[in-house]
Amino acid sequence: MKNGIILTLLFAIGLASCPIISAQNSYPYELTLEDIYKNRIFNQKGINSLRWMKDNNGYSTLENNESVEGKDIVRYHAKSGTREVLLSADMLVPPGKSDPLSLQDYTWSEDNQKLLLFTNTRRVWRYHTRGDYWVLDLPTGKLQQLGREMDPARLMFAKFSPDASRVGYVCSNNIYVEVLETGQITQLTFDGGDVFINGTLDWVYEEEFDCRDGFRWSPDGKNIAYWHSDTKGTGTFYMINNIDSIYSVPIPLPYPKAGTTNPAVKIGVVPSAGGKSRWFEIPGDMRNNYLPRMDFIPNSNEVMIQQLNRLQNTNTVWIADGNRMEIKTIYYDQDEAFLDIHDNIMWLDNAQYFTWTSEKDGWRHLYKISRDGKEEQMITQGEFDVVEITCIDPRGGYVYYIASPDNPTERYLYRSKLNGKGKAERVSPENLNGQHAYQMSSDARWAIHTFQNVSTPNRYSLVSLPAHKQVRLLEENARARAWYESLKLHPKEFFRVDIGETELDGWMIRPPGFDPDRKYPVIIYIYGEPWGATVQNNWGRGDLWHQYLAQQGYIVMSLDPRGTKTPRGREWRKIIYGKIGIVATHDHAAGMKEVLKRYSFMDPERIGIWGWSGGGQMTLNCMFRYPEIYKAGIAVAFVSDQRLYNTIYQERYMGLPSENEYGFREGSPITHAHKLQGNLLIMHGTADDNVHYQSFEMLVDELVKHNKMFEMMSYPMRSHGIRERENTTYHLRQVMEKFWLEHLPAGPR
Question: Is the pTM of this model over 0.90?
């Protein structure tokens, strides 16, 4: 987790106890949509809520209790494998209740003597961040609920004070502190409500900056620093609930669309015992700058604050004194295109230096910066991107990180010396090609290692580092792998195609009984925006939807155009600046022309394309602008006009609409809707708080205006993932399958 709390790794893969296939079925087994999306029998096992303990000698996990319906918190000793139940579910039965609390998450106090338990959770937009919190004192066994005076399931982001005598939390957009011994609650802010937000952030900060938890304890526990947002002036978008009552119910959502007014955000400090808030006077218009990161510097009352300008091409780093409320600039990072926010800051050498991630040399690397900003040293070096920092180990003198210098579809663990000397050293085994992930102890001696590739379900093991010696296999998912192998599926084949300006990575799945002398219909899966990539050598839950389509007689494939989130350097990612939907569409069409030349078994008269969210936008752009290539398409939860999306995301990659009229116009599918020639299905949820249903309706209106025939499917009160309410996912996939079979006939010719 952020803010120095112990890292959390939730392998949300599926129900650990779910069978791989039902007993009456024999191998080989044929995929069905009902089994994939309704019966959900193809799940695999994972590891729940793993935490490394403070002594780095062991880790805790959640495991089912066999006697009562609940979960135990269990500790495993890393070296010996000894198992110890630290907290039995029967210790979590509240007074007057018969059943234990159902744990969603938990956090240890610094001394490992108390546990903060998160239960009865509710989703706030994308994530379950609101619910009930309880504290268990392990030595005494005392279990107490926090905020008993509050309404149920109303608390957010609770965390211990440094000495674990108190807990701070947010309720109804105000911050509170509760003394554990007495239960005394002190309210610290009082203006929180529909307009003002304290201790958490609004929709756009949560979605685009991953910034939800909006307050921090000072190291001495005397103060709390927090974000305060004023959403007045931000446009309100209304979603409409038409299905849960006889009258429609409007759902207001403050949501700043590209080029419009942002919330005004500031950072203040309030005494944790109660008192007046004081505010840092950070230069610049609060509505035209962002404050995406803030945290206390260790062992001080100073706060490091990052400030992005509205165009997000300059990051100013401030040190703010929580006593005198004085601020000073210590560092600038700039880019001609845009900057990303990274959570890789660690203070070194008695807080005289800090680590910083930048792309200033053309690749994403880690740097060491002096506290005054005058000294700067590159730690990781080479023509490769650091994908993710896994562990910074000052005592051992190394940083461990994920990178893939030779193949952007894969991920491996490397390490480099913190002094910047020597070459990057690969730690992951040479014989395991695919993607590796690690949850490491803070001293870098141990790690939970996850390995996967397109034909290998997630394999979890405990390894010792840096030798990467397997100490214990935790979960191999052997049944999932046996099931997968029994299906006799064609695994994804990776390839590259040269389009002149660059080479694009791609994959394809061939159908069963494939005959290279015949011609097959092709379904392309696309995303094509900076937030993600589709061409990856990972398990992806077996990619059952695309394997199912292949079984029906389709070749399924994907290409990543430039601008996607792959470790191919700054130039690759940022060439799309100001040209979202333009460069990537050109790249993809050029790539498909070369693919069709290379593979004669692909039928150029039966080329389909589909995508979700940004991939829906790309689907529309491809179909409208290159109808000679793409004959049919399905666009799900798409942006039709880039002016309709939020300020932070759209302006980061496109600039302001007033300054880039051409880019916003030409990159938006709605501009080219009159060019539609092929068969099109559009799908959207009416309660999509991310990409609003408005985007769907505006495109429908434009297509109708130009007398274009198309198909459409709306899902009432479903959000961006279109998965809420009974039978939704199964129904959606059936609609998609029906469209493909009707408009892109399956099988070879």
Answer: yes
